[in-house]
Amino acid sequence: MMNRRRLEHDIENQKNLQETLPEAMNMIGSDYYAYSALQFAMNFYNYYEMTCETKVPETDTMFEMITHLVEKTLLAPFDGQIREEAIKQIDCLRTEILKIMQELTAYADKFAIYEYILNRLEKNYDDQIEDVDNDEVAADIMQTIFSDNDQVLINSRIRAMLSQLPVRMTKNRFFDMLKDSLSIYEGSDLSSVEDYLYMVRSAAGLNVRKTKDLVTSDSIACLTEHLNKLDSMDMVMLSSDRFKDASAILMLAVEKIQSITDRYFSLQEVINALYCILLNQPYVSCEAEKEAESLQDIIRAIVENNKADQKLSLDDEVVEKFETTEGKIERYLAYLSKDEALIDVMEQSNQAMMESLMLGQQFTVLKLSKNLSSNSVFIDLHEEKMEGKADKEYLDKKFDQLVEEFTALLSQHKKLYNRAVIASVLREMPVLFNSKQEVGDYIKSSLAGCHDISEKVSSVELFQAACE
Fold first, then answer.
1. 336, 32 in Cβ contact below 8 A?
2. In whole angstroms, what is the distance from residue 328 CA to residue 55 CA?
3. Which of 20, 56, 67, 332 has its CA 20 to 30 A from that of 30?
4. DSSP-derived secondary structure letter, 237
């Protein structure tokens, strides 16, 4: 049995690397294999039970593909060629799911804009609505924002205020704020700038795919129909009945996004675990292999039950085999916490040594396993992070691109929609106020400039709710 403490000590202190590196990498790969095997059995079972309760063809078809791969790999004698082909198929499936999830996220962004609009129209249909005292409300909002000395919390509440209070600013003022927010990133990593730009575009509903990259699914087709209905409505002139119609459409869309996203999330958990198992299969220790063998009966039962026309829940005596996993996931999580620190040391200090020992491919497997076992279920395994720092020229170029995109977007929509877009983007910006006085001035200007009582009252209530 390998001595974990010795391996960890030698890697951390860069000792005996010719012997220690291969041994440590096999240890880490075995830990990923065992942990993923335990996770896979539970996630595989959870998703199968979902199919027994509710059928979702677009994800269940993918699950069928996975069960076929499981039957050819985990439930069959090891075959290197079959394993390689299975890994390729799983990777393609992950890529397809990522595209669908990106599209679903883009739709969620767009529906969030309509939610903002409808929330502020709702009180128009309430006969009892009364205006508020601007000065009194402004004082209450300032009290809410600065009631705590935690600067992180204060900034969060300022962003909530910006995104909820009535937006009354010109397009040029908005562009000035965009430019100021980008200027903060001068000297930062290019990847940080790109992450910020993604969030800004997402908030504005701009993350739509180009025609050649469009993905199709039943859920996306359904959401397209809902969005087209909302796009066709004149939100300024909604009657009470049409407002109810719009709210119902929005509710259906949100429920659809939530339900299908949950389904894809569960499916991706299955795929990630299976991917990780197959990646580490050639390097696994006998001890780790036994951890997976203890769950073979559960996996085999799911595969067999899934073939039936009428899917039934697993028998209790099969499910009871999960009792053998008690405490094991926690143990392997503790191992992986230390393992991942070793991976970081290896990446920083031992690249040349690993190449000389022909361990480069195995190390790539460990880095992939680290990503697949992370909390970021939909992480892109093939994303290439931009290297370098952002200078003024780069930021100016990105700003010009944003201006072009926002100019086109704002010209296509009416005032209500555009205000919702700007409010959504303001929430993603770094806080740009230089003093408490500037915050107070903005609040007073926002309230004084809004003559729509419904919008003002709703906005104040939504801000307070966001800060609770």
1. yes
2. 32
3. 67
4. G
